[in-house]
Structures are given as C-alpha cells and as structure tokens.
Design goal:
It is a single chain. By secondary structure, this protein is α+β, with helices and mostly antiparallel strands. The chain has a single domain, classed as Rossmann fold. Helix content is 53%, strand content 17%. It has six helices and three strands, in the order αβααβαααβ. Helix 2 runs antiparallel to helix 6 and helix 4 packs antiparallel against helix 6. The radius of gyration is 17 Å and the shape is elongated.
Length: 143
C-alpha cells in the first residue's frame, strides 16, 4: 500500500493566505479531517484513506493550532467532533445498508454503493480508535 503523507506542505501557506485576505477583526471558520497525532498514519487509517480514495494528508490539532498561530490568528478554537461523528457515521452506515440500499443501487449502481459501504466500515474503525478527528476550527484575525 502506498504511504500517504500526513501533512499537506501548503497548509501553513493556506492559513497565511486566509489571514491576508480576511478583513481585520474577521473570523475564519472551517471543518476538516484531522488525526489525533502527527507522523505516519496507522495501518487502519491507511486502509480507510485508500477505501475513500483520499490522498490528502492529515495532521494533529496541535499542528493546526501552531499553523494558525504562526499565520497571525488569535482566539483559536479547535473542537473535536469525533464523539458526535462516531454515532452519526454508524447511523449513516445503517441507512445505507438498510432502507436506502435499493434506492442507492438504483441511483448510482451497486459497485459504488459497495465501495462506499467499505469506506464507511473502515472509517468507523479509525473513528472508534480516536485517530480520525473530524474537527471544527475557528480563529480571529486581530483588529
């Protein structure tokens, strides 16, 4: 399996650019997929990323906070949404496997539905381990 880089090299540049174009006193808000640690992803995370067909890297909340701080943001708030999404992902999977299955197959085909079911199953594994951290980010550009 191909090793996936864990941090996009241009993320710091992205936060600097957002800071540059945001008006003074303005807020930056986003959601992103983070990981609980920096460094290589676990085998389970690599399996999930491959199942989803994702090639972007992930980084820790600490790395994001550092990048936002270095870009000049203040009042940084990083909220781990893993506890909520662990429940939601299971609900989504149950619907896809159950009442929505036939309609999804009719709409997009059985191959794509099966691919997405595998992706959700592997995603739940890394959500349960805590390695996958869906996260809300908020920061302010100083006045």
């Amino acid at each position: 399996m191909e090793r996936i880089e864990t941090w996009p090299r241009d993320q710091e540049a992205l936060f600097r650019q957002v800071h540059r174009v945001l008006k003074p006193g303005g807020f930056f808000a986003a959601s992103d997929w983070l990981t609980s640690h920096d460094g290589p992803p676990s085998a389970a995370m690599e399996t999930y990323l491959a199942a989803e067909g994702l090639s972007f890297g992930m980084a820790s909340p600490e790395r994001y906070e550092t990048a936002l701080t270095m870009a000049g943001f203040e009042d940084i708030d990083i909220v781990n949404r893993n506890p909520w999404y662990r429940v939601e992902a299971r609900r989504e999977l149950e619907k896809m496997e159950g009442p929505l299955f036939d309609q999804l197959v009719d709409d997009v085909g059985e191959d794509l539905v099966e691919k997405n079911l595998r992706a959700w199953q592997t995603m739940i594994t890394v959500l349960d381990s805590g390695e996958h951290r869906p996260t809300h980010l908020r920061a302010k550009r100083p006045d």
